[in-house]
Design a protein that fits this description.
- The chain is built from no helices and 13 strands.
- By secondary structure, it is an all-beta fold.
- The protein has one domain.
- Strands 1, 2, 3, 4, 5, 6, 7, 8, 9, 10, 11, 12 and 13 form a 13-stranded parallel β-sheet that branches.
- The relative contact order is 0.13.
Length: 132
């Protein structure tokens, strides 16, 4: 079983100057080399650079360039810089230029940056209650 350490500092430019960043939130960083088989939950901000085969339920998820998620994600905000194979259900989804996504995305807002590789069914609801 993994025990995560909390970090109250926030040096990530993706999270700075956003309404989603709360100073009291737990901040977990999982670097490349970490492999999780099974579902994982967190009520805070998660920077994920490892590999997970399972579902993630978090408040704010950032899959870094080395991250690889094979499963479903449920979060308030999701940023993908790495790879995700599965379904994303969120309010805000951002796919960076390095993102590789295959599956389904349901969100109030979806931002896809030029260069992202996306093979997914997209459903931008425009309404906050549609992703519940």
């Amino acid at each position: 079983m993994f025990k995560m350490f909390s970090n109250s500092t926030n040096d990530n430019p993706v999270l700075q100057n956003t309404k989603l960043d709360k100073p009291e939130q737990r901040h977990s960083v999982l670097h490349d080399g970490i492999v999780i088989e099974g579902d994982w939950q967190s009520d805070g901000i998660v920077e994920f650079g490892g590999k997970i085969i399972g579902d993630l339920t978090v408040d704010v998820l950032i899959v870094t360039g080395t991250g690889n998620v094979e499963g479903n994600v449920r979060a308030r905000s999701v940023t993908i810089e790495g790879k995700l194979y599965g379904t994303i259900a969120a309010i805000n989804v951002t796919l960076a230029t390095t993102a590789v996504v295959s599956g389904k995305i349901v969100a109030q807002q979806i931002q896809i940056n030029s260069g992202a590789n996306v093979e997914a069914k997209l459903h931008a609801t425009g309404k906050a209650d549609a992703v519940r």
